Amino acid sequence: MLILGIESSCDETAAAIYETDGPGGRLKSSVVASQLDLHAKFGGVVPELSARAHVERMPGVVSESLSRAEIKMSEINAVAVTHRPGLLSALLCGVSYARGLAIGLGVPLYGVDHVKAHVAAAFLDSASTSSSRPLSLSDLPVLAMVASGGHTVLLTMKSPVEFELIGTTRDDAVGEAFDKVGQLLGLPFPGGPHVEKKSAGGNSEAFRFPIGVIRKAPFDFSFSGLKTAVLYTLAKMSPEDRVARASDIAASFQSAAIRALVSRAVRAVRTFGIRRFVLCGGVAANRTLRTAMNSALVAEGAEFHVPPFAFCGDTAAQVAVGAAHMIAAGAPPAPPDLDADTISELFASSR
Ligand code: KG4
Ligand code: ZN
Q: What pTM value is reported for the model?
């Protein structure tokens, strides 16, 4: 069965072809058109520009995914699309496109939750340099941490379609904190990868930044205090010192953010007794974080999984795999008038 995945939740226009084979499958193509150039000068994603670019680029990106997979549109057996969460106007582009395509081809449509799709990326078998073996459905249940620009979520994936929220951020997402600190240090948008580069050679113990702890909710996160601590530290410095100590600040911030993530991961493994842990989402591309998580979890006797670098950020490959899991579990397709939503299904019950 050939699944076409479509992603347009934020600033990547993406399409992918995934071929299912029993409970597993194979990625045949994955195309991602980044809009970074469009938003960089604004220091953040501009929803209106993002939506327009998705509308312009989606047909070309889908054609490219078909030609790289060497298949024809008429061979597609199912269409999968990110329908929540994300920027509403951006999501609507992918959802409308996918709805039309599914009706035109006469194939089922699947709406995939973006947060859950990030976890699905850990199931991708890829030729690229994965630092760990891909997960398979027989490995479930797993604990997972989705660390991205929009979410910092700890959850259990119990079956291909059963997810349970354990903890989430009370304020900023960890990727958002990286981006804001990058901005404070005068680095390009998005700050995450630049803060990581700046940290290299910096002293991670030069500044003792706080990690947010919420006493009554030990699995929740808070990054606004950490971000504010960086802001105040910089405000007290001379312009020369700000430049001279940028690497130390970046490294100390990164170290605090990583401690916040790793401490919750270790606590979750101890509390829930699930000895498989997945780190995913854009921030999972951070090498220092990957290494720290790996050491801490292996010390707990847990197996650590992280998607290949190319599948940490937003791709349509993860959307197609998410739909493959739904299909494997016998989940019904979406109605033809599938709608978009800004909030993940994981939080739907708390609304
Ligand atoms: O998953 P993603 O591509 O999009 C969302 O769903 O939000 O995550 C994007 C986030 C951004 O905040 C970006 O700065 C961060 O992931 N990021 C990183 C790194 N690469 C991307 N953060 C820290 N270190 C990195 N190497
Ligand atoms: Zn994402």
A: 0.96
